[in-house]
Amino acid sequence: MSGELAVTGLRVAYNRGVPVVDGVDLRVPGGTLTALLGPSGCGKTTVLKVVAGLLTAGAGEVRIDGAPVLGLPAERRPVGMVFQKPLLFGHLTVGDNVAFGLRMRGVPRAARRSRARAMLDLVGLPDVAGRRVGELSGGQEQRVALARALVLDPRVLLLDEPFSALDAELRLRMRELVRRLQRELSTTMVFVTHDQQEAVDLADDVALMLDGRIEAVGPPSSFYADPPTLSAARFFGGVNEVRGTVTGSSFACPLGELRLGVPAPDGPGVLVVRPESLRILGADGAPNTVPATVREARFAGTHRTVVTTAGGIGLTATVAPAVPVEPGDRIPLQLPPSALRVLPDTAATDTTGADTTAAATPAAAAPVAATAPTTEDEDVRA
Amino acid sequence: MTVTRELRPATRPARVPRGLRVALLLAPALGVVVVLFGGGFVQAVAQSVGYQPYPPARDLSLDAYRALWADPAVRASVGITLRVALVSTAAAAVLGVAAALLVRSLGRTRRGFAALLQVTLPLPHAVAALAMILLLAQSGALSRVAAGLGWVDGPADFPALTQDAFGWGIIASYVWKEAPFVAVVVLAALSSGVAELEDAARALGASAAQRLRHVLLPVLAPAVAAASVLVLAFTLGSYEVPFLLGRPFPATLPVVAYQQFRDPDLAARPLAMAIAVVTAVLVGACAVAYLSLSERLRG
Amino acid sequence: MSRAASGRRAAGAGLLAAALLVPLVPLLLWAVAGEFRYPALTPELSGRGLALLGDPAVRAALGTSLLIALTVAALATVIGAAAGRALGCHTFPGRRAVQLLLLAPVIVPTLAVTLGIQVFLIRYGLADTVAGVVLVQLIPTVPYVSLVMSASFAGLDAGVEDAGRVLGAGPVRRLVHVTLPAVAPGLAVAALFAFLISWSEYILTLLIGGGTVQTLPLLLFAAIGSADLTAAAALSLVIAVPPVLLVGLTARFLTGPTAATVGFGRL
Q1: Can you tell me the distance from the alpha carbon of C62 to that of C66, in angstroms, rounded to the nearest whole number?
Q2: C97 and chain B: CB distance < 8 Å anywhere?
Q3: Is residue B207 predicted with pLDDT exceeding 90?
Q4: Using the beta-carbon criterion (under 8 Å), do B130 and C224 form an inter-chain contact?
Q5: Which of B107, B108, B197 sits opposite A89 (nearest CB)?
């Protein structure tokens, strides 16, 4: 039993409106953790709830280990879920909360107790089984919620921003806990988050979701080194963009003719390069070196952020704290060919990169209502 | 220009000390409760054991309570009072919870039904009792419908549902008013948080019946219990409905208390007071039981 | 959702609506009834019932009912709001005891204690007067308003008053411009229920008013007692309509999980 999750062509619309999830395809290999990353309102929680059975899909298919599950009510799916809030049952003790699902399955009391205790040990709460829920701290509550879901041995565990209400320090510790549990139990997990750092920290794969669609899927590092789309590059933030035209392996833009280390199709495009890839005060004669003027140099702890203009375009670089640049300096700025990527200009007008959610792909603008069944408002709740 | 003005201390003392302020705020309300309510209760107890303020009489004895205990009529009253109150409360609680869960499950019509629940709530009990008389009496609307369908030949054929020995009419009137009350309280307790808890239970494999038994009812229990105590207290101590819908004998305790109190023979006064005291103590005991229970449940 | 389940739901909804509304139908029919003999299902229509409402006795009772209910509502709201302020915004020794003391009259029937003080009201000349009736009706209403207002004041952010103070508002302006607007919904609900409790009251009015103070519920009981069902039904409508309208108008304040709904338990 590997616990492979496959979502295909998923579409969900509330109150016969515009679909909030439209054509989502997602494959999570058994025993791995995929982070479903996206800004709030992009539909990622909706996908999770459809997989769990708490919402009904308008169209599409969800399979676990090849078997379709959309026909099953939530309570009969081999799926566990941890919510944004702990949602512990206030009238039960901590131990009874963890044993709740086992009780629903008719597991005898003694067996439930020992399994609940073992699971509480595993999440690092060995001595709280007899306590009341109200006596727990926020972090402890989410640990109990994790234990409560995992004790049922789900083939897929869904986590819906479970740590977003916790403070930064605690969130880091909870990430480690999830990572450890995932390794020890090899449960397939889908972790919803809007925090790219959390996604990168946790996941084997990151699925970036924007505007109800999966924008891109891949290992976390690929989103930095080789962003699949312009929107994806922008969501991960801090990226420099230069508009121009590709001819062969050269890119014509206001900075001049730049050499590309990675081929791109001919025609107009947007060149993206991460600030940490830019080199200043580089060796003479290095390719793609352009004259730049320093506008601002900010100390940022582990590095300095240097804002420059070159050829009328703003370029931001990050450099070691000790590098001596001051506003007004004229410096050579190198864009190493291997760090440059040219992507199709899908996000037509937005050059600031501030509003990533507004970056609609042409496909998303395709007619949405054509096949959308008009779900009755109450019936969308399964 | 120099203006020398002494700065006032940042926290200048309040003109009225806090303790006095609290006392002044509370005084009128406590006056009403202590003098009128507490005083009334103490007087009822005193007058039940033979004390009379005007004209003064201090012929103290527990005769009224002995008479109350010995009198089969009073015991019959206790029986019907408890029966009517318990049956009404239980029915109002069960139907109220069912109605609330039903209304919650409705789609578009949900708001309309929630408003509909509030139609009977503000009706005075006397009006509700009259409605039940016109509906349930042997010559009432139901009897007429039954006659129209050929089920009964005349009023005498129709079962006595008002002024009956069991108290069905009283119960019907109370349930018609109080089940929506319970429903409104339960609907208020059925916040979105409860729906989220049910989702969590679903994800843990709980079926609809299991969610009702293991999540909904435990979550709603405090609200239902609180509403039920109010209903029980009201049905034990209210006069209007049993007066209009019940038999003169055996009547419920508040009706008997008033009857005895109206008796021109002042010798009946202690008995009236004793019955009033017993009723009040009965209701108070329910409330205390509820409070201690809820404290214990809260842990 | 299965078809059977939604069918059951629709049936349940229909049953609920019928259970709530059907008992009102005979009442409405009788109010406009002339001849309405068994086993007729509908009456001969007659304006007699509604014409009775123009009767001077009914108009006088309407005035007395309004006078008493408005006075009770005003007094109970002022007295209860003061106590609610103390309970909701201050901690002091004996606070819990005061709360329990105020809860007692909400639960224990007022009739039981009113029997005990009736002789004193006679003695002090308050029996058979509107003032005496108002006084005893304060027993259930003041504690109720106190409880509602203590919840309302407890929900008031103390910082708001401090903000008003820092912005230069003195005690009176703070009360008028900051505190009262913040607790206004609670005040409205509390006053409404105090009015309704008084408006519906029969036995306390009879006991203390001695039949001299004639309110609408007293006329209703008299009509039922004399088996004039048309008059009784017509009077019922006069008594029932103001509460239903008032609750309808304030419904949006009443649905929240507030102590306010407890008021319905007293009606």
Answers
A1: 6
A2: no
A3: yes
A4: yes
A5: B197
User: Would you call B214 and A378 a contact, using CB atoms and an 8 Å cutoff?
Assistant: no
Q: Determine contact: B194 vs chain A, CB below 8 A.
A: no
- Provide the pLDDT for residue C164: 79
For residue C39, is the peptide bond before it cis, meaning its omega torsion is within 30 degrees of 0? yes
B248 touches chain C (CB under 8 A): no
Q: What is the ipTM of this complex?
A: 0.91
Domain residue ranges in chain B: 46-298
Domain residue spans of chain A? 5-222+369-377, 238-343
Q: Do B215 and A89 touch (CB under 8 A)?
A: yes
Max CA pair span of chain A: 77
Both tokens of A276, joined, read 């940490």
Structure-block tokens of residue A49 = 């709830």
A5-222+369-377 and A238-343 agree in CATH topology: no
Give tens-digit pLDDT for C14-33.
999 999 999 999 999 999 98
List all chains that touch chain B, counting a touch as 3 or more CB pairs closer than 8 Å. Answer: A, C
What are the helix (H) ranges across C124-174? 130-154, 158-166, 171-174
Q: Which residues of B touch A89 (CB under 8 A)?
A: 197, 200-201, 214-215, 218-219
- C254: distance to nearest CA of chain B, Å? 9
Predicted structure pTM score: 0.83
Smallest Cα distance from B1 to chain C, Å: 26
Q: Provide the pLDDT for residue A190.
A: 96
Q: Which chain B residues have a beta carbon less than 8 Å from that of C241? A: none
> B12: Cβ–Cβ under 8 A, 6 or more apart, which residues?
none
Q: In this structure, which amino acid lies at residue A143?
A: R
The CATH number of the structural domain formed by C2-262 is: 1.10.3720.10
Taking Cα atoms as reference points, which of B89, B93, B127 lies closest to residue B240? B127
pLDDT of residue C176: 83
Residue-wise pLDDT tens digits, C59-78: 999 999 999 999 999 999 99
Does residue A366 carry a pLDDT above 90?
no
Summarised one tens digit per residue, pLDDT across range A262-304 is 888 899 999 999 998 998 866 667 888 899 999 999 988 888 9
Going by CATH, does the domain composed of B46-298 fall within 1.10.3720.10? yes
**Tokens read off for A161:** 């921003």
- The answer for B 7-66 residues in CB contact with A (under 8 A) is none
Q: Among all residues of chain B, which has the CA nearest to that of A153?
A: B204
Q: Does B239 sit within 8 Å of C203, measured CB to CB?
A: yes
Amino acid at A113: R
Burial of A368 (0-12, 13-18, 19+ CB in 10 A): middle
Is the CB of residue A9 less than 8 Å from the CB of residue A21? no
Task: Tell me what the pLDDT averaged over chain B comes to.
Answer: 88
> B209 touching A, CB under 8 A?
no
Domain A238-343: CATH superfamily, name plus number: Nucleic acid-binding proteins (2.40.50.140)
pLDDT at residue A378, as a whole number: 35
pLDDT at A373 over 60: no
B99 to chain A, any CB pair closer than 8 A? The answer is: no
User: Which residue type, as a one-letter code, is found at position A68?
Assistant: P
- What is the DSSP secondary structure assignment for residue A143, as one 8-state letter? H
Q: Which fold has domain A5-222+369-377?
A: Rossmann fold (3.40.50)
Sequence-distant contacts of A129-135: CB under 8 A, at least 24 apart:
A129/A93, A129/A94, A129/A95, A129/A98, A130/A93, A130/A94, A130/A95, A131/A93, A131/A94, A132/A93, A132/A94, A132/B299, A133/A88, A133/A89, A133/A90, A133/A92, A133/A93, A133/A94, A133/A97, A134/A90
Looking at every residue in chain C, the average pLDDT score rounds to 88
